[in-house]
Amino acid sequence: MFLEAGKHVCVEYPMALSYQAAAQLWDLAQKKGVVLHEEHIELLTEDYKQLKKEVEGKTLLEGSLHFAGGALKPGFGFPAFSGIARLSWLVDLFGELSVRAATFEEDAKQGYSKMTAQLLTSDSKLDIIFFLTAFLTTDPLT
User: Fold this and answer.
1) Three-class HEC string of the chain
2) pLDDT (tens digit per residue) in 62-85
3) Residue 36 class from Cβ within 10 Å (0-12 exposed, 13-18 middle, 19+ buried)?
4) Mind listing the pLDDT tens digit for each residue in 21-42?
5) Measured distance CA(87)–CA(89) in Å, rounded
């Protein structure tokens, strides 16, 4: 809507749920002659900058990242997408990653779903396990 009105737009990463939707936004911005900027704000925080300093030049031998959040509303994406910002941390810290294995489990009785991905660094020296848990209750501790 803002691009259509000829306004510059800054959006939080990720910009869209699909490449096609993002490409359409970029095309519209170019057509209107305005700036469309995508930013991952978390990567600019002092905590993240400190983390990046701490891992710079070091070799991580094993790693895991656990992200927990609430249930996704119908039509608001899919479990892997809700953790995409955390995955971008890993790419920023360790370079390009590939998926070695992934699983998804859901337990309605316990009120959660869990996605686990085993990621491999480009030099094949490090496996990173990524856990994404979505709690179906409003309080993840219940």
Assistant:
1) CCCCCCCCEEEECCCCCCHHHHHHHHHHHHHHCCCEEEECHHHHCHHHHHHHHHHCCCCCCCEEEEEEEECCCCCCCCHHHHCHHHHHHHHHHHCCEEEEEEEEEEECCCCEEEEEEEEEECCCCCEEEEEEEEECCCCCCC
2) 666 666 666 566 665 566 566 677
3) buried
4) 889 999 999 999 999 988 878 8
5) 5
